[in-house]
Every structure is written in C-alpha cells, then in structure tokens.
Amino acid sequence: SIDQILSYAALLIIVEDFYKLSEDIGREKIENL
User: What global pTM score does this model have?
Assistant: First the structure.
C-alpha cells in the first residue's frame, strides 16, 4: 500500500541522516586523537 511505501521512504531518509551524522562524529573523533 501507499502507507507502507511512505513509511519505508521515511525510514530510508532517517537511516541516511543517521549514517551521515555518525560519519561526521567519527571524523571529528579521528581529528581529535
């Protein structure tokens, strides 16, 4: 159904944002070492 597609798309966006955020945090930690 359309609801399933929308919730799946929202989940992908959230995961992508989380991945980018954790990547930025990881980069900062590496620079601080």
Answer: 0.61
